[in-house]
């Protein structure tokens, strides 16, 4: 029996299949095998709200094409992150040839495959200290948008010219964002500064921008982890994907809570 998720649930409700049969079908539905080298988690977005993410950096080009075709045929959103620069243009051409709807970002080789980006009402602010941090921030943006969140982005507002920050802080507060992502390299101080100015959860992303003693993001990571401002959480160096997923989860849960609260007041 080959059923999609909706058909399985409808069949269970109508008594056409047993609970054990439904459980078996759902477990089969959750994983899609690709020959002997990959297993796609096709129900991740239904289960967790986060789409399947394919880490492409070390994958062979032919294998990557097979993964993309299979994943896009089974789920409405797939992120392919860190595509090898030698493969990136080929993947773009391959996507156009196969009429796959793609969303790209500045200074990143991560691609979001999605026919339609829905909206949950969640809002995420994404800030960077410098232009060198934009690629990581754009990865976070693509993840957030794949999860239905609107992103309010502002780049190159680091503490070397701290006066650039204050109009942006006013904007994210006015936009009533649910969470803020801050990407910063060098000493990573921007995350602490932003966290000290708002009553909004802040996710710090240390970027691998820097040289010398604290090179490759080490100083930024240490600085964020030892921040004296409260309300700041920190992910790994260059982990825009993880920051985006966490931020969108926070934003979407906040929207659901607000909706239930408003409904309870009117009932």
TrEMBL record:
NCBIfam families: LarB. Residues 122-256 form the PurE domain. The lineage of its organism: Archaea, Nitrososphaerota, Nitrososphaeria, Nitrosotaleales, Nitrosotaleaceae. This is PurE domain-containing protein. SUPFAM superfamilies: N5-CAIR mutase (phosphoribosylaminoimidazole carboxylase, PurE). InterPro entries: P2CMN_synthase_LarB, PurE_dom. It comes from Nitrosotalea devaniterrae. GO terms for biological process: 'de novo' IMP biosynthetic process. One of its GO terms (molecular function) is hydrolase activity. Gene3D superfamilies: 3.40.50.1970.
